[in-house]
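Notebook, bench 3.
Goal today: get a predicted structure for Sugar ABC transporter permease from Cohnella nanjingensis so we can plan the truncation constructs. The sequence was checked against the plasmid map this morning, with no discrepancies at the termini. Length recorded as 291 residues. Pasting the sequence as submitted so the record is complete.
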Amino acid sequence: MHIFAKWWIKQLLVVPTLILFLIYTLYPIIDSLMLAFSHKPPFKKPYFVGLDNFYGLFNDPVFIIALRNTTIVVIGSVLLIPLGLLLGLLLNVSFRGATAVKVISFAPNIVSPFLTGLVFFFIVDPGVGVLNGFLDKIGLHALAFKWIGGERLTPYTVTVLDSWKGLGGLGVFFYAALKMMPKDMFEAATIDGATSMQKFWKITIPMLKETFKFITVLTIIGGLGSYQTFYILTSGGPHHKSETLGSYMFYIMQSKGGDIGKTSAMALVMFILSMSAAILYLHLTRKRLDE
């Protein structure tokens, strides 16, 4: 009887957490899923419209642009992972000022996106930015492009800036993984006469495979949800040429009567893309490891 009473006490202690989970996590997910297949006029009840929201999305040219730009962000972010590894290797080396380098590297991750966006604006803006002014002063007028505000370069410029913000976080992940590696393997390799490059390719990289998988999945999901830098620097302009899926969702909510059905459908598309990319990557890496 005493054991049964203790079991019930444990179950009751879980109830508050379960209630909070149902209210703040499970219910919004189910509600958003239902809204993706519904149309909800302002101040009225939603009604079922089937796949109309998804049909409207994939026939919306701005959504296609946003999807393309989001893909560019994802690719740019993934290509930055090797630089994150290099930063992690640098942070793992003891030298004078190493602590300062660690703080500076991670600073963009904790600074307000608005502040970093403002700093980027005063660097790359064609009118007031210091980059083009510097290029003009040293005689490189041909390289003084319209980095933001133009239809051609804006998505790529903002992608580079947005990806750069996450470089410090990648470096810290790799730094933590490097710190956890057993030293005896490297000491044994040194005794056997292995060079630094041999130890890097034969020991460090294989032991970082799980870290690479984890970071790549996080980077893909983060890239698909990227919007802050785009929204702050360009608000999706000019002519929606720099929209991402996230920034376009904000635009729809603000300027199209708050079409919750369409934004919910877009959120579902983003979720499916995130999960598909993550599952595909994990499947490919596992298959490669099995071989």
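The radius of gyration is 24 Å. The longest helix spans residues 2-35.
Flagging this for group meeting.
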